[in-house]
Specification:
Elements: H1 3-7, H2 23-33, E1 39-43, E2 48-51, H3 53-59, H4 71-74, H5 79-90, E3 95-106, E4 109-123, E5 129-138, H6 140-173, E6 177-182, E7 187-190, H7 192-198, H8 202-205, H9 219-229, E8 234-242, E9 248-258, E10 261-268, H10 270-326, H11 332-356, E11 365-367, H12 369-375, H13 377-384, E12 388-393, E13 401-403, H14 405-421, E14 427-438, H15 440-446, E15 451-460, H16 467-472, H17 490-500, E16 504-510, E17 514-522, E18 548-552, H18 556-569, E19 572-576, H19 579-586, E20 594-598, H20 607-617, E21 623-627, E22 644-648, H21 653-675
Parallel strand pairs: 12-14, 18-19, 18-20, 20-21, 21-22
Antiparallel strand pairs: 1-2, 1-5, 3-4, 4-5, 6-7, 6-10, 8-9, 9-10, 11-13, 14-15, 15-17, 16-17
């Protein structure tokens, strides 16, 4: 026996002194005492109880009194549960019981515990079963953990079941469409709302692609949305689905992929779409009503001004005729001057109307706006009078702009006159240029494209304007001035000019604090030539070589006037009343040194189209367009090819003569250079 076995107190052993024990029992006791696991031996008919130190912890306050006592006495409270197992071991059968529940007394009270037992018979040397050997492990903690885990699983399953029921209720009861489709767009499931909204039952759609139900015009959009939803959540997409009973419904979709399927939710928005369309129609009707009101205001003001001008023209002509019949020629010059003045004012009014409608003929050039404003300083100061101080502040390094200089001068003068009228007691007008960079936010606020602009601002220290007046300031014929002191076209002309030039105009005003009107013009990326020296128009000689000019215009009076000018200069003139006749002449072998043509012509082509067709046959043909209503797109938006120019009706006869002479002379020089 080992030292531990010899040191043990066996005085209470039912078998007597240790040396008297049977050999198998001594071996079992040795194994038991040297084991770290709880073990015990029950020996003989009374099953005397012998155990190791590890098992003593299980006995609790029963140790050490339990040593040598009968097993049945020590574990009387659990004897009914374990007796069958012990009897089987005593009958020679090794038994095993896992997680056997036992109610044991611990710390003065009963507790539910669990043990795993292994019972083995202990035989004497002759083979008879004399006792049993037991190795046991308490599994209370493990059993309780498993029980808690099982309860947790049950609770989790209960939650999953409840959530599944909630999802199913949502699937069934929601008013939004819920669908499950695969990556190819084939329906796998639809909820009752799908049927309620679109009329199609699950049997109608499951197994079929969404494209069988989407309107053809929305197939491309739906295909892109499906491609997106295969890999990530889909932003809101709106398309139209056919209804089973005809027509269609607007559906707003969101979707997300999971595994190989796409889960999509659709909201029925047909009513919202119809409301939006109805609102759009109402807004369009309101805009049309406002437009008609503006047209009424425009035509009323136009009729008033033109009737006054026509009265001056027609009255002067009638008096001229009367005086000539009477032989009284002394007054003819006075009436002629009056008629010419009224005609010029009518032309100016027409130009203002065209500027407002963005249909005037512009001749944009790279322009140093600061230099232009400086050059007008003295003129503006004389115009506004000595009671108002005019200051011009040009930005250092100001960008050039691509703009029609005379039109910009006219706009600037109009703004300064308006500023003068807003300061009846005197004040200060500040003209200022600045470089402006419009980012996306600023461009959106100013209703203009993002980019770089040159701003020309006119600020006064006058009475200012309330918001209601600012809102209508650009309306045609709207004016706050007394009757007879303003046409109401100044700001509307400036607005149209800025828009046609690719820019914008804005008003900033506060009652009692003054007003700033700012014109924004797109920056020109290039160098501006110094034109301060000016140019002298040379007197060109009369025709001496029989040059021929073709005049194409559907207005006989215009053709007559131009023909008279040409005859005065010694040129031959050919007339045509429409584009077809003009092109026929141009495609012939007749000598043509200059084509003078209206832009708007009958005959199937406009003037530009006729000129372009003629240049296929006559590549060096010089062309002078004359027009009273210029479609800038037709004329190239100020970028006419070389050898083409434009003159706006009505024009002064001397200007017309100078332009004809200069273009024919330029053509003659070109031909001479080619010959040399």
């Amino acid at each position: 026996m080992g030292a531990r076995m010899r040191a043990h107190d066996w005085s209470r052993s039912p078998l007597g002194p240790l040396e008297a024990w049977p050999a198998p029992l001594r071996m079992a006791v040795s194994l038991m005492l040297n084991s770290a696991f709880p073990m015990f031996i029950a020996w003989g008919r009374e099953l005397g109880f012998i155990y190791n130190d590890a098992y003593a912890e299980i006995l609790g306050n029963k140790h050490p009194a339990a040593l040598g006592c009968p097993f049945e006495v020590i574990w009387s409270e659990i004897w009914p549960d374990i007796n069958p197992l012990i009897q089987r071991a005593m009958a020679g059968e090794a038994t095993f019981s896992a997680d056997l529940p036992l109610r044991m007394m611990r710390r003065g009270q009963y507790e539910d515990t669990w043990f795993t037992f292994s019972y083995s018979p202990v035989r004497e040397e002759d083979g008879r079963v004399a006792g049993m050997f037991c190795c046991c492990v308490e599994t209370t903690a493990g059993v309780r953990s498993q029980a808690e885990l099982a309860e947790l699983n049950i609770d989790l399953e209960r939650q999953v079941t409840e959530r599944s029921r909630e999802r199913d209720r949502l699937w069934r009861n929601t008013q939004d469409i819920q669908v499950i489709i695969d990556g190819a767009g084939v329906f796998h499931a639809v909820n009752p709302a799908f049927t309620a909204i679109l009329g199609w039952t699950p049997e109608d759609v499951i197994g079929r692609p969404v494209f069988d139900f989407v309107l053809p015009d929305d197939e491309a959009l739906t295909s892109r949305a499906l491609e997106h939803a295969r890999v990530e959540s889909l932003p809101v997409v709106e398309n139209r689905y056919r209804h089973k009973n005809g027509g269609f419904r607007w559906i707003s979709w969101v979707a997300a992929p999971e595994a190989k399927l796409i889960y999509a939710s659709g909201r029925h928005i047909t009513a919202e779409k119809e409301q939006a369309e109805a609102l759009s129609r109402t807004e369009e009707a309101l805009r049309q009503a406002q437009k008609m009101e503006a047209v009424g205001q425009l035509t009323g003001g136009l009729a008033h001004d033109f009737n006054n001008l026509l009265a001056g023209i027609s009255g002067s002509l009638e008096l001229m005729q009367t005086r000539m019949l009477q032989g009284r020629l002394t007054d003819v010059d006075r009436y002629m001057t009056a008629a010419q003045g009224a005609a010029k004012r009518a032309a100016a009014l027409t130009h203002r109307l065209l500027a407002f409608s963005r249909r005037q003929t512009l001749d944009p050039k790279p322009t140093d706006v600061s230099r232009l404003a400086m050059g007008m300083h003295e003129l503006i100061q004389r115009t506004v009078g000595p009671g108002i101080l005019v200051e011009v502040v040009g930005a250092t390094g100001a960008w050039p702009a691509l703009v029609d200089p005379p039109q910009l001068e006219n706009a600037l003068l109009n703004l300064c006159i308006n500023a003068r009228d807003a300061m009846p007691d005197g004040g200060i007008i500040t003209i200022e240029t600045a470089n402006k960079w419009m980012d996306e936010r600023a461009a959106r606020q100013h209703d203009m494209p993002e980019g770089q602009y040159l701003s020309l601002a006119v600020t006064d220290t006058g009475t200012g304007m309330p918001p209601g007046v600012v809102a209508r300031a650009f309306d045609p014929f709207f004016t706050t001035k007394p009757i007879g002191e303003g046409t109401g076209l100044g700001l509307s002309m400036i607005y149209g000019f800025a828009q046609q030039s690719g820019g914008q105009v804005r008003i900033y005003s506060e009652v009692g604090q003054g007003t700033t009107v700012c014109i924004y013009l797109p920056r020109y990326y290039g160098v501006v030539e110094d034109d301060t020296a000016g140019e002298q128009i040379a007197e060109l000689p009369r025709s001496e070589a029989g040059e021929t000019v073709l005049i194409v215009d559907d207005e006989p009076t215009v053709r007559m006037l131009i023909t008279d000018i040409l005859e005065d200069l010694g040129y031959a003139a050919i007339e045509a009343g429409d584009s077809a006749t003009g092109l026929k002449v141009l495609q012939s072998d007749v000598r043509i040194d200059l084509l003078v043509t209206d832009v708007g012509l009958p005959g199937g082509m406009n003037g530009r189209q006729m000129a372009d067709a003629a240049r296929n046959h006559r590549p060096d043909l010089k062309v002078l367009f004359i027009t009273g209503y210029a479609e800038n797109a037709i004329l190239g938006n100020g970028t006419l090819p070389p050898g083409m120019a434009v003159l706006t009706k009505p024009f002064a006869m001397d200007n017309m003569a100078a332009r004809i002479r200069s273009m024919i002379e330029a053509g003659r020089e070109t031909r001479l250079q080619r010959r040399s």
